[in-house]
């Protein structure tokens, strides 16, 4: 087991696997990274290598299998996401978020300025492009018949989700970002 995984605590869960909400959150955060960075899926593999997580995330197929534990996915696997796998994905998310910090801050600042002026996202080219890419990825990969996906059936709801995910990515770029994100993934799940 890679030593870097020890930086994240073991949550006191009733079951040894990750709860459903954790599986969904991890995959959606990775989806947001893909919307920010066109080469995001390749960057995830590079990050896994840089963090010495190749024993957990062996390659593209293994990464897809881990992400497919999200029950909202079109081709969802029924197997649970283990804590070790969730830790590895959390560290990858935080590593890539740190690399994208400047962009994330610019997009959220642009969003705040648009909100203050009561303008739509289309008035900020980069933000509109990122949100549009997120919507496209979400619709292509999620099962439209699942209740959790139906809740995001409109562009406005998906735009809100994308902004929320950008905020969460910024949240994990700061001091102790991986630990804070890790704790937030189990908020309300720990006994």
Detail the poorly predicted runs. none
Radius of gyration using CA atoms only: 16 Å
End-to-end distance: 25 Å
Please give the domain count. Answer: 1
Mean pLDDT: 93
Could you explain the architecture of this structure?
With 191 residues, the chain is an all-alpha fold. The chain has one domain (16-173). It has 9 helices and no strands. It has helices at 20-36, 40-50, 60-67, 83-99, 101-117, 125-141, 147-150, 155-171, 177-185. Helix 1 (20-36) crosses helix 6 (125-141). The relative contact order is 0.18. The mean pLDDT is 93.
Topology:
Blueprint: H1 20-36, H2 40-50, H3 60-67, H4 83-99, H5 101-117, H6 125-141, H7 147-150, H8 155-171, H9 177-185
Helix pairs in contact: 1-4, 1-6, 1-8, 2-4, 4-9, 5-8, 6-8
Features:
191 residues; mainly alpha; 9 helices
Q: Quick recap of the structure?
A:
By secondary structure, the chain is mostly helical. Helices cover 61% and strands 0% of the residues. The model has no long low-confidence stretch (mean pLDDT 93).
């Amino acid at each position: 087991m890679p030593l870097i995984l020890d930086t994240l605590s073991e949550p006191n869960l009733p079951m040894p696997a990750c709860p459903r909400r954790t599986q969904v959150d991890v995959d959606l955060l990775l989806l947001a990274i893909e919307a920010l960075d066109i080469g995001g899926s390749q960057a995830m593999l590079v990050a896994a290598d840089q963090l010495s997580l190749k024993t957990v995330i062996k390659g593209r197929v293994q990464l897809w299998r881990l992400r497919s534990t999200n029950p909202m996915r079109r081709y969802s696997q029924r197997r649970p996401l283990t804590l070790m796998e969730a830790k590895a994905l959390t560290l990858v998310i935080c590593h890539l978020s740190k690399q994208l910090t400047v962009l994330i801050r610019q997009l959220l600042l642009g969003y705040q300025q648009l909100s203050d002026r009561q303008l739509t996202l289309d008035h900020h080219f980069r933000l509109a492009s990122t949100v549009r890419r997120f919507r496209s990825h979400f619709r292509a990969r999620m099962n439209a018949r699942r209740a959790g996906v139906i809740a995001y059936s409109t562009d406005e709801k998906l735009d809100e989700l994308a902004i929320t995910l950008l905020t969460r990515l910024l949240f994990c770029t700061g001091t102790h970002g991986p630990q804070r994100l890790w704790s937030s993934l189990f908020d309300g799940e720990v006994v």
